[in-house]
Amino acid sequence: MSERPVDVLVAGGGAVGAALALALARERFDVVLVDGRAPAAFDIADVDLRVFAVSPASAALLTRLGAWDRVAALRVSPYRRMRVWEQGAADELSFDAALVGAPQLGHIVEERALRAGLWAALDAGAGVRRVCPARVVRCEPGSSDSRVELDDGSRWRARLVVAADGAQSPLREAARLGLDIMPYGERAVVAHVRTERPHEATAWQRFTPAGPLALLPLVDGRVSVVWSLRDARATSMLALDDAAFVDAITDASGARLGRVQATSPRAAFPLRMQLARHYAASRLALVGDAAHTVHPLAGQGLNLGLLDAAALSEVLAAAAAAREDLGAPAVLARYERWRRGEVARAAHAFGLLDGLFRSDFGPLPLLRRAGMGLVQRIGPLKREFALHASGFAGRVPVLARRLS
Ligand SMILES: Cc1cc2nc3c(=O)[nH]c(=O)nc-3n(C[C@H](O)[C@H](O)[C@H](O)COP(=O)(O)OP(=O)(O)OC[C@H]3O[C@@H](n4cnc5c(N)ncnc54)[C@H](O)[C@@H]3O)c2cc1C
Fold first, then answer.
1. Vertex 400 angle, CA 272 and 17, to 5°
2. d(CA 80, ligand 1 centre) in Å
3. Of the residues 192, 311, 366, 396, which has the maximum number of CB atoms within 10 A of its CB?
4. φ/ψ of residue 390, rounded to 5
5. What are the pLDDT digits (tens) for 189-204?
6. pLDDT tier at 400, thresholds 50, 70, 90
7. Residue 254 Cα distances to 7, 84, 186, 225, 355, angstroms
8. CA-290 nearest atom, ligand 1
């Protein structure tokens, strides 16, 4: 079979790869998107256990890519407030959407809805060729392009290959880009539960000695539980019967929403911090979980990946305008400089927060309570936190800036 030329081949059609393909097509690049599995159909009767807190910057990006309205038409749940507190402490941190000048602090979105909305935008004439289901089985960089072979037998010559192929990224491994791994020894136990009192369109987070517990508002009135627990504790939570599990969540949440009354089936995701040592190699760039995974306590993993996608498409558009080679080391180094430091700082901060709230060593409990009280009382500091969470802090890619 002959080799087909293309500007950019994106391997991985998860939320990050699909968003990148749309962003690149918008810049008139010839793009092919490859994924090993077709997106699952969205079923209105079934609420996906995997949900994300999508930041306002990510929503702005998805709007500009023509995907947000499609996702919102399926199902999203806006949250206007956030309440963060520690078991046994009086002080509480509260953030309101007004603090960042937006109607909401973010949206809780099911993974299936996000993927389906993005793929619907791809279907609506975005000009992206899709090869799905198919997996990349070989990728050989050359002086002017990379030769890529898929398991459907097709062959491609791409000026740049982007690995958006998830945390286990086969392309990152094959390119030997190096990976720093910090296992947390934790798993996130997730379930959707019904509570006695309404969630008030608020994202609730309680730091318990066992680990951070998030209660995220769903549009059907339930809340999505994400509880990061040491492995052994996660195993025992999964083994509880439903009655004992809802009691455990009532307890761990301090009955903030009253009694937890019913639960969906549960699942658990292993947690570890992974940071690729380089985001680029010869004619290859990494985005999303292929480049980094972070602790979910701040709900930022996907948001960071979407910002990678926006930043990379901006760097490539500027390179094309300057008639540079898309796969040139100097071009890819600009992308790596932009994103790697920012993501690493965020990843370490989330890991540190998790450790800080699990420890009762010496003066730590006092210090963190004082810190929480300070952030709550000092307006500009609190606004800075909220801006970071919304994605509008630091160097924000043009595609993800506030919508006017
Ligand atoms: C419990 C938990 C809660 C979380 N909550 C949040 C949150 O609230 N907010 C947030 O922003 N983030 C959150 N995250 C993080 C978020 O889930 C991930 O960062 C995000 O899903 C990564 O998306 P991705 O597109 O990079 O990778 P993936 O979604 O893993 O997609 C990778 C794709 O690549 C494909 N693929 C793999 N290999 C190949 C190959 N060889 N060829 C072709 N295709 C291939 C796969 O089929 C897959 O479709 C959470 C994570 C966990 C574990």
1. 50
2. 25
3. 311
4. -80, -10
5. 999 999 999 999 999 9
6. very high
7. 54, 12, 22, 14, 21
8. 26
* Residue 28: burial class (beta carbons within 10 Å; 0-12, 13-18, 19+): exposed
Q: Whose CA is nearest to atom 17 of ligand 1?
A: 302
Q: Whose CA is nearest to atom 52 of ligand 1?
A: 296
Question: Rounded to the nearest whole angstrom, what is the distance from the C-alpha of residue 283 to the centroid of ligand 1?
Answer: 22
Domain extent, residue 130, equals 3-80+105-181+272-360
Q: Is residue 186 in some structural domain?
A: no
Q: pLDDT tens-digit profile of 19-38?
A: 999 999 999 999 999 999 88
Total-model pTM = 0.95
- C-alpha to C-alpha distance for 159 and 182, rounded to whole angstroms: 33
Helices (H), 52-110: 56-64, 68-74
pLDDT in tens, 347-378: 988 887 777 776 666 666 777 777 777 777 77
In eight-state DSSP terms, residue 39 is P
What is the residue with the minimal CA distance to atom 3 of ligand 1?
A: 296
**Does a structural domain hold residue 196?**
no
| CATH (domain of 74) | 3.50.50.60
Q: Which tens digits make up the pLDDT trace of 204-225?
A: 999 999 999 999 999 999 999 9
Is the pLDDT confidence value at 232 over 80?
A: yes
Q: Would you state the pLDDT for residue 319?
A: 98
| pLDDT for the residue 389 | 87
Task: Please indicate, yes or no, if residue 234 is contained in any of the structural domains.
Answer: no
Residue with tokens 């949440």: 253
In eight-state DSSP terms, residue 27 is T
- Residue 230 counted as domain residue: no
Distance (angstroms) between ligand 1 centre and the Cα of 302 equals 7
How many distinct structural domains can be found in the chain?
1
84: its two tokens = 């963060």
> Given ligand 1 and candidates 302, 339, 390, which is best to mutate, with the most ligand atoms within 8 Å of its CB?
302
Pocket around ligand 1 at a 6 A CB cut-off: 11-17, 34-37, 52-53, 135-136, 164-166, 170, 188, 190, 226, 269, 288-289, 296, 299-303, 305
User: Which of 107, 135, 289 best tests ligand 1's pocket when mutated (most atoms within 8 Å of CB)?
Assistant: 289
